[in-house]
Amino acid sequence: MKSQDIKPAHAEDQQVVSNVELNLFEALIPVVVLVGLLAFNVSVFGDDALAGSNQFILLMGGVVAAIVGYFNKVGYEQMLEEVAKNVKSTAGALLILLLVGALAGTWLISGVIPAMIYYGLQILNPSIFLGACLIICALVSVATGSSWTTSATIGIALVGIGNALGISSGMTAGAVISGAYFGDKLSPLSDTTNLASAMAGSELFDHIKYMSITTTPTFLVTLLVFIAIGFTQTTSGLADTSLLLKDIEGVFNINGWLFLVPLVVIALIVKKTPPLLALIVGTLLGGVFAVIFQPDVVLSIANSDTMSFQSAYKGVMNAITVPTSIATDNDTLQGLFSAAGKGMSGMLGTIWLILCAMVFGGVMEAIGALSKISSALLSMAKSVFGLFASTVASCLALNVTASDQYLAIVVPGKMFKSAFDKKGLHPVNLSRTLEDSGTVTSVLVPWNTCGAYQSGVLGVSVAEYFAFAIFNWLSPIMTLIFAGFSIKIKQLVDTK
Questions:
Q1: What pLDDT digit, counting tens, does each position of 324-346 carry?
Q2: Which of 53, 99, 270, 468 is 20 to 30 Å apart from 138, CA to CA?
């Protein structure tokens, strides 16, 4: 999911809360109310719903769940304790969000992001751009094991390049996310890959090998779709490229040395450096490079005419903490730079959304609703295909209700493990299904930590990129196709 070392400690040891007093109808009440309120809220506010009203709706969903819990003998303190656990589990993710905003700010004023856009415009043309985005992000994500790092570094630049080429930001974000989650699933460095195998009781590399059976065709289909889109769509970007290149050169000193900054960050992640430390190093390096290579930009942000330690400090700190505006007469570049230079304060809306989602998910866990919903789905699994379908449905339901990808792996993993064993199915079947449906679909839910993060970092709403995150919504479909036709369903005693 996010990066190494920010998974809640001992997530695989988490207890699934059950409540014999609660029935399925009552467990579903908060879900139905939440979905209904969110649908109405979005119809009223549109894209502005994430500015705050959706957050309040999530709190109201938590209130409804708390009322249901109260009438089913769940105490206030118990609910509050579970909410506290949920919020605590997101501490690492929230800090990463803040540092991503800081990193994007210094990478903008240092010229790192403009350099990526500058050279990218010369290498990538609209016909191959989306396919290239998918492959590039997949490679970076496999190397780092982190979809979050991939989006926060190369993903931001690719969205900027796509906008400059006249390609829909939703399409570009969909390609970035599809590639990022391909690596997040298959990389042995990924926390979700390790968590899914641990929950199912399968060996890590057996899990990765078996998961590639469904992941590879899903990726290939996604690539073919993006290639087809690239060759059929009409864009206006090529006509403006030369002007954009000239205007970028007019504002920034573009050179190859700037790429040392992202290379250092990626190298640190590959070396399993804690992501918070890697992001801090990337942010500080960006600030140093800004002072060295872009002194005029730093001075303009600091509202100063003379370079001094104080003016340099002020300019870099402004880029780190608050949204940054780069002066340019080119409207396209102005939009690109504004989207990139958010600073730490630009991430607060996403953090707010995650915290409110954790309140709803925590109360749902405390009252036993998550366990009840998963148990109901498990009871419907009469056949092998039904077992796979119930696992997929449980993962999807928990990504919506618990708002956290880890719970969408942990809870179904605990609930369905014995059922897979009883049907003589090897643990890799469960671990693969958890990843195919729990890991990748989290980014498709706006209030899930993953959906909120990707939307906030890339500056593209979930509604805009949903249809183009092809790899993510196709993965659970692919795993059901394989299960339905009994393709590569490994038995506990496999003679092959």
A1: 878 777 766 776 677 667 788 88
A2: 99
- Would the CA dihedral through 166, 167, 170, 172 be positive or negative? negative
Q: What are phi and psi of 17, to 5 degrees?
A: -75, 130
> What residues form DSSP beta bridges with 425?
491
Structure tokens at 360: 């709803």
Q: Which two tokens stand for residue 233?
A: 């769509």
0.90 exceeded by pTM: no
Mean pLDDT of the chain: 84
CB within 8 A of 304, min separation 6: which ones?
311, 314, 315
Written as one string, the DSSP assignment of 459-475 is T--HHHHGGG-HHHHHH
- Phi/psi region, residue 376 (left: phi>0; alpha: psi -120 to 50; beta: rest), is alpha
The DSSP symbol for 257 reads: G
CA distances (Å), origin 275, targets 95, 266, 282? 10, 10, 10
265 confidence band (pLDDT: 50, 70, 90)? confident
Report yes or no: 207 and 432 within 8 Å, Cβ to Cβ: yes
Mean per-residue pLDDT, 374-392: 83
The region that residue 459 occupies, defined by phi over 0 for left and psi between -120 and 50 for alpha, beta otherwise, is: left
The DSSP symbol for 16 reads P
Least confident of 22-26, 115-119, 449-453: 115-119
Residue 491 bridge partners (DSSP): 425
User: Alpha helices, DSSP H only, in 188-330?
Assistant: 191-200, 204-232, 237-251, 260-270, 275-293, 295-302, 309-321
Structure token pair of residue 73: 């003998």
Token duo for residue 469: 């995150």
pLDDT tens column, 202-212: 887 788 889 99
User: Helix crossing, 91-109 with 295-302: angle to 10°?
Assistant: 110
Nearest alpha carbon to residue 188 among 140, 141, 145, 151 = 145
Helix (H, G, I), strand (E, B) or coil at 50: helix
Q: Which two tokens stand for residue 351?
A: 């953090």
| H-assigned helices in 381-469 | 384-401, 405-422, 427-434, 449-458, 462-465
What angle, rounded to 10 degrees, do the helices at 156-164 and 331-340 form? Answer: 170
Lookup: tokens for 437:
């449906």
What is the separation, in whole angstroms, between the first and last Cα of the chain?
A: 33
Contact, 318 vs 324, CB < 8 A?
A: yes
